[in-house]
Amino acid sequence: MKKTILTLALCAATAICAFATDYYATDFGAKADGKTLNSASIQAAIDFASTHGGGRVIFTPGQFVTGTIYLKSDVTLHLEAGATLLGSTNPWDFTKDPYVGWTSMIFSIKQHNIGITGKGTINGRGFTTANHMVEYYHRGFLEGDAFKLDRPNEVNRPENIYFRECTDITVTGISLKDPASWNQTYDQCHNILIDGINVDSKSYWNNDGIDIVDSEDVIIRNCYIDAADDVFCFKSHSHDHMCRNILLENCVGRSSANGVKFGTVSKGGFKNFTIRNITIFDTYRSAVTFAAVDGAEIENITVDGLRSYHTGNVIFLRTGKRWNKITSMGLSEKDRKDVRNKQPYMRNITIRNVYAEVPADKPDAGYNYEGPIEDLPRNISPAIICAGIPDCKIENVTLENIEIVVPGAGNPLYAYRGTSVEELEAIPEMIDYYPEFSQWKELPAWGAYLRHMDGITFKNVTIKAQAPDYRPCVVADDVQNLSIDETKFDGIVTNKTTKK
After folding, report:
1. The pTM is what?
2. What is the per-residue pLDDT across 253-262, written as a single tens digit (0 to 9) for each?
């Protein structure tokens, strides 16, 4: 991992130093008046720079309105402080690229040595653009089954950035805000450095903070992301690719969904991740979610240093098989066969040096796009949920140096789940469900619920309840090789025990 990261850092530095020529967008006719549509002028500057040895296309202070543009090899967009790329609010100014099947303000496809740098801002104005699309659907200008729940499908709404099959990418210093869909996607890319960016992505539905899809050799560091959907989201859309060799460090995130998440689309896999010094707050679902429900291979993942405040759940590990719902996912027959023939797995997960607080109230209350109100009745879910399925157990998980404070106060008269053999067996497997920590509603533990696992170690773990709870702190159902050492549950010190 260290060798990979060092190589990536050197590649990124070389790419930046190689830019010997600066080109100003205004020299190609772009106007920073917040009104003129500059797509053609900006594209002309990019094309000229790319065909003349590369360089930077510089945006001086002001507001440059644009629709879709394509970033080309050896070109960096450099936004000076006070410069803003302002997304057009006219949906017709954006392209749905036929190769990737998504819509974006900035595309780059099969290019190399590209970047976006500076202290300026990319503002998609997505709330306005998306609502214009809704108006067009209602007026009959746009048609099709992609309009559901009174909102257009996310692939038809413009992202701020979509890079596909690109190499040597540098994105540093900029601010990104208000996309109409996901915010920034890096799909099947290699050698990515994302450093020191600020993201405000909570103006509309599906506003992820950052999506790394089937990409390798990635560094994300020193970023602040506030998102309506998942913050640091790693996906695998292809059975033939995966996310691999990833470093995520020194970042802060807030979400109306999950903090750090694998999936939910998880066809290929996620391997060799180091996640360290991360803070997640006011987050509706889980601080950390690792899910293998579409055939993914997940292994060799380390989380070292997590602070989670006012977050609905702390750790959620889940395997599953969404096979009998596959047709509703819009997959091809080939994909359906690939998923059925592939056995997912999750193993070798280490999570250590964690402090977390779970609230009794709704963590994302008051934000523009909150997570849904959970079906009631249900008491507060366990802070840690590791739930495999019978033929796909979660293997070799280590939880070390962890302190979690939960509200407790589970009331059996409000909602009840017992721990007899019959009652545990009555908990549904839900192997084909979308994975969320709350999917079972009531669970029989307030601290940790473990199911279908082989190899889990608790070492120096403290889980405290602030009020009495009718449930035990930890429930282990079909768990082999459980080790508990120097661990406190609700103030009770446990002696070292090992179960085979």
Report:
1. 0.93
2. 999 999 999 9
